[in-house]
Amino acid sequence: MPRKIKKIKYCPRGHSSEDFAYFDAHGRNMIYSDGNCDLCTKERFIQEFKTWSSGNVNIDKIIRESQINNRCEKLHWIPYDNLQNIEHIADGGHGSVYSAKIENGLKRKWHFIKQDWEYEILGIEVALKEIKDFRYDIAEFLKVSKIMDNYDCIGISKNPSTQNCIIITDLDDDLHNCLTKTFWDLEWETKIEVLASIAECLGNLHGKNLVHCSLHSGNILKERKFKIYDLRIDLDLCKLESDLILNSNNKNNKIYGLIPYIPPEVLRGSRFSKKGDIYSFGGIMYEIVTAQRPFADQAHDTYLMIDICNGVRPKVPDFMLNWIPEWYLDLMYQCWSDDPSERPTAIGLADLFREISDKIYDDIVDNNVMRQLKIADENQKNTSKSQKQELFELFSYSSKLHPQSRYIGRYIHTLHGLCDSLEEIKSGKSSDPNLLLKSNKSSTSNINTREIDEETDMLAKISLVG
Ligand SMILES: [Zn+2]
């Protein structure tokens, strides 16, 4: 076994760095030098600051700080011509998503012997999110990513023809797509594992006083090569709770998100809170047991918002009730409580799902929670695949998805914002600005994405309402 010894290493420029060198049994040094020096690397990055700019001082500042301060995970300014094989994947709430290859890789470390950069992720596929929504604050996203040590964000680029900024991240699949593909093969063990993983991610966010504000199954991501429960949450619209409180003097006229996942208090115009994220989590619990997103069979309009505020919640199809433990349904409806203080906390959910997951692993059935789970799992296993498919066709995703449902982020008028015209909308005298006009608009997306906000439609509709 080689011995591991701490020693001081010097680069040709005289920078010293403490490093580990390995010696074999005879005391011979096995690794002399890797030709890298963190300080030389930092100096080279600083020298190159003048060679690029995103056009936004706040974004430049965050990228530069990460190149100076982060020893490992740095953000990069990525010239557009380094992105090759660009293919459109889908349109999202803030812009469009593409896949691309990073042709020449990213600068990793300065090699003082070769006097050149060493590159990483050469030719690797990544996701490009071209931001077309001028209200979306990229610097804010980068700030939150930094707080959460989110290594999924690789860097920023700019499309020279549109002048839009592009956020470059790992190429991931979203939970909705994973569930659609694998739902009938999922056992309770995996479902609980998935929920434990999401609740833990949410608990981490809340622990750092961040509120997600837009949690749904399209925002929960999985690296393609990983298992379904190796999840992370797209930080998208994440905000510091203190900033939300500062901005909450007045009620909101508009909010961004998906109506079925937005808690009633926010639909009414109040600010988003950690308890609001828990309401959204209820929507994910629903999809995990039904393979449906909440309110898939209804138009996502102002009428639905009023219904939600009056206590209407998504229903679990009767034929599925045998496959779901009663405590699970109770917990899901508790997340959906109209009173935010009655909803559980993310940490509470994470602890509960983790404890159940551990018991499933050790095959411990010591209480009612575990007994109900075992029965539900057996009931589901005892239903043949053909029976399941038959039932599913009756309750099929494609046939039941309402043409005016929308699972892609958009700006929504709150009931507070609509208060003057609400009676007219209800009586049909005014058109509903929250109703989608395009009935043939597909709302499926196959990756980490939300479709383009139909802002022009929205503006037309606002002028219709007056
Ligand atoms: Zn050096």
Structure description:
Its EC number is 2.7.11.1. Residues 83-361 form the Protein kinase domain. The chain is an alpha+beta fold. The protein folds into two domains: 53-170, Phosphorylase Kinase, domain 1; 173-427, Transferase(Phosphotransferase) domain 1 (Transferase(Phosphotransferase), domain 1, Orthogonal Bundle). It has 16 helices and 17 strands. The strands form six sheets. A six-stranded mixed beta sheet has the order 3-9-10-8-5-4, with helices on one face. β9 (153-158) and β10 form a beta hairpin. The chain starts with a strand and ends with a helix. It binds zinc ion.
- Tally of helical runs: 16
Strand content: 15-25%
Q: How many E strands?
A: 17
Structural class per helix/strand content?
Answer: alpha+beta
CATH class of the largest domain: Mainly Alpha
Broad shape? globular
Poorly predicted parts: 439-466
